[in-house]
Amino acid sequence: MKIEVDMYKDIRQSFLAGESQRQIAKRLGIARQTVKKYCEGADHPDARKPYERTPDIITEDVKQFILDCFKADEQEHLRKQKHTAKRIYDRLVEERNFAGAESTIRKAVKNLKGEQSVPPQAIMPLSYEPGEAVQIDWGEATVYIDNGKTKVHIFCGRLSYSCDIFVQAFKSPNQEAFLEAQQLMFDFFSGISKRLIFDNAKVAVKEGFGQYAKPQDKYLSFSSHYAFDLDFCNPGKGNEKSLVENLVGYARRNFLVPVPRVSSIDELNQKLWNACLKYRTTHKVQNRNHSVKTMYQEELRFLGAVPLFRFDTSKTVVVNVDDYSTVRFEKNNYSVPTKYLRKDVTVKGYGNHIRILYHNVEIATFTRCYSSGQTQYKLEHYIDLLQRKPRSIFNAKPVKENVTAALLNWGKQLPGGNKEMVKLLRLCVDYGEEKILSIKNLIHSHVVPTVDMVRAHLNETTEPTVIYISPNEVPVEAVDLTEYDKKYGMAVQE
Questions:
Q1: Domain Integrase catalytic spans what residues (predicted)?
Q2: What phi, psi does 161 have (nearest 5°)?
């Protein structure tokens, strides 16, 4: 019979009140042995002893045989040639005349393996010296750039001793962005740790994994220049860089909520940079004795110096400028000034930007495009060509893709036609379209606009300097000009 809690309470209280065990048993209609078991509180009806029974057939000799099989497997170190529970059972039957069931051996093997191995969930607490290591990782987030919903890749770095952080956003986690992000991280930390801990991403690892990983050639060159050792994690072992794993989530929840709305990825990165600086000055990590700022200032003395030569992290190609005054880089086109037509130029692709150079002189920069078949034009690259071919101005792609409809419609009112419109566009290049449109609003709608009117507003005259003098400060004597007026025939009022 199962004793419920109410009856157990009655037994205990009645016994403590002086009622005998016999009387309690008779009154409750239960066995006296049951009352004896519970009356003194030495047992509880809800307590259940676990069932533990080792089959008699599993003797110490059988256990030792199983452990010897484990030891033999470990010595051979052959992953595909190990004892299974079935093979151990067969050997016991053949070699030891075992008479038990296979299921009994399977259970014994499972239990003994559990006793011999460390659970995979176990995590070793780690401690790092100042300047010893930095952990890095990638994450993903969603933001609004120029009113468009965009997925960006978040690069996160964390010093293992002080827990100071670095976070920046890139449009792609490619090798260019990977190297550039670390370069910026060294600038932010004002130094370089002795080793860098990362996973086995293809941007870093050519082949292998963990301690057997072979780094990509460019990454090996990069690490040699900045003098740090590479420490790659084992596959699926995020706990080996748990500090930065936690940072990815922290950055999403704290730096990117609410979802940022920015005009460019540069603006987003400036916000992230400032957020990291604020974290350094205000944050204290749980279970740490000192603040991040205090520990970072201590660690800074142990970081290696950033070298003066800046490693080129870009993907670089040399291309010929086509007849449309554009160059092609990874499925997209970018414009250059028309004077470089049919010349070879150098295109450098960075994580978020494109730089185009001619004889080591920068001639154009763009935000890097990661789609396909797109062309980015800059109006200033085509302004000289438009002056030669003014009839194309309202159909020219560089104009239609860079000038607002408001300015184009206003330009059609210019009395000088297309040539006058070219002059207006030159002013846009020099002063910015927003400035020119603000002048448009100053000109009365009934007045026919001209470029000269716009120029007049741009050439703002300074107000004349006025000197206020008190009449008492400089004495002025009256002069009689009558004779002067008579001599030169000036009219004299009577």
A1: 126-305
A2: -85, -55
